[in-house]
Amino acid sequence: MTNGEFDEPVMYEIDGYNRQCVEDGRDGQQIQTIVRGELLEMFLGLGADFWPPQLSNFKTLLEIYLSDGRGCIPKNKLAVVLESSIGVTRQKKVSGPECGRLVSGGAIVTSMALSSYSAANNHVAEFEAWTMYLVHLLAVAERWSVAKKYWKAEADLAVNAMFSCLARLCEELSQRSGNYVEGNSLVDKPLYRVRLTQLIGLMCVYGLWMKEADRRSEKHLEFIRSFCARNVNELLLWGEYAIPQFLAWYLFAPNVDPTARRHSVMANLIDAISEINSSRGDGGVPNPYYSPEEIWPYLLGLKSEKLGDTFTGESFTIGALVDLHVRANFKQSMKRLWPNVSKIAQRSFVPEQKWEYYLWRSERGSNLEVWPNPTQLWDTMIREAHESKGEDIPKLVKLWPVAYLSYLIVAPHRINRSGVRWLATAVN
């Protein structure tokens, strides 16, 4: 299929191949062509049926479509478009056949939104968009208990698209000879480690996926190992938004470095958050609701005043990090860290309904705050850390553990202890 026309030599080759198929008795392997005029005629025949019936935010979709495609995709806007096109928040029950139509339409909308980003080879934006499409698809399927036959094919399409985006990103990085600067190197310097932390996280997601997929590329795996080994010292805790990126590295690290280095990094993360977010700190590490785009002006020195929020005395991620460190049985390390950790409230947001966990923004739910005991029995900590049922995350995303990790990287504010414990068990 093409939106243009085939040249005469190409058509000659296709005709020759098809004749050979007939002669060999392979009629089912013949190539059928659909060119621009036929494609246009098909779309015109579909008319309004081509567009998702629930799409009510066409203006927002157009804003994304008309962007230059070189920057970050506006995930908050894309979420609004996907919620309306897939009908996630509608009150009327969605039937199986209707769900099939909605998720197919959502795929068309996602592709259209990505047009300029795909043209700019913005693989990160493509990965994020297909991840968001996947979770919105799962939201409507899980909310209305829709049978798999109505949505599984589209979900697999989204997962394959996410995998392919990471494969293309890996190929691009492997050809850059260690130079990952974007634009002016003087301006990029304060942001370099932020971006490199993200790239390490994404490459580790890709590496984990290749371990469980049948599309293993030894060339790409070798690059990821060397890429992570060379750049591990560039990992930067600029905000809790970056924690899922660290998590991806932590889970893939045994494939790069068989030593206990990943556990040292984990201890340093716990130590840093508990110290910076203590009453002795200077405002604290920004919570996972603060994206890189919101923090960049401060890293570049364009804003001198402090962020409007204070993060002292609380953290959304420290509980999950502690669980991972305890699971690795680092008792003496935790004994040293616990006095500070116990002074940090472990915060989380729990959506009212499980399916709302997939939404970029949940209007209904509870903000929870748990204070650790000043002293804690090691046996109790071990028991809690090894609980891995993942009861605080929805069930359908568990079909694709690495896709769940992808979702945490795209939407870090959805991280919770239960989900991280389940993920660590599922991946390993």
Q: Structural class of the helices, strands and pairings?
A: mainly alpha
Q: Percent helix among the residues? A: 55-70%
Number of domains: 3
Describe the strand arrangement of the main beta sheet, using strand numbers: 1-2-3
Gyration radius, rounded: 24 Å
Low-confidence stretches: 46-50
Query: What is the tally of beta strands?
Result: 3
Mean pLDDT: 88
Q: What distance separates the N and C termini? A: 41 Å
Helical element count? 18
What sequence of helices (H) and strands (E) makes up the elements? HHHHHHHHHHHHHEHHEEHHH
The largest β sheet comes out as: 3 strands, mixed
Strand fraction equals: under 5%
User: So what's the overall shape?
Assistant: globular
Describe it:
The protein is mostly helical. It contains 18 helices and 3 strands. The chain is globular, with a radius of gyration of 24 Å. It starts with 7 loop residues before the first helix and ends with a helix.
Descriptive labels:
428 residues; mainly alpha; 3 domains; 3-stranded mixed β-sheet; 3 strands; 56% helix; 4% strand; globular
Quick overview:
The chain has 428 residues and is mainly alpha-helical. The chain has three domains: 1-49, no CATH class; 51-175; 190-427, no CATH class. The chain is built from 18 helices and three strands.
